[in-house]
Amino acid sequence: MARTLHNGNEMVVDLKNGILFHTNIPPENHAALRSGFAGYPANPRWNIHKFQAWKTGHQLCQALKQGQLVVRSSDCMLVASEDEIEPQSTHQLSNKNKQSIWTQTIKQVFTSYQVAQQ
Q1: Which domain of life does this protein belong to (predicted)?
Q2: What is the pTM of this model?
Q3: Which of 12, 20, 87, 108 is least surrounded by CB atoms within 10 angstroms?
Q4: 3-state SS assignment for residue 94
């Protein structure tokens, strides 16, 4: 669960039981991110950055439960549900459309975290 891969500003974090997620949240806040994803309550002694990471994890968990996000079967990555559409589907999406959907979903999840960073 402590596996973190660095890739520029983005890292891949193991949220829970092999569920991976790309994030730009600093490593010192990853425990709070995992805590929110696991459904634990926020710690009242956390600073704002840890709380925002916890809130992001909580929002990711809620989006997963609501079907907005899914765990991709090929690499266990948490992605927008539209990314899981099969190429044989009648509703094929271009790469630009997939990127747009992914960007919109992630922006909604990270809005509160990014506001706190400024």
Answers
A1: Bacteria
A2: 0.66
A3: 87
A4: coil
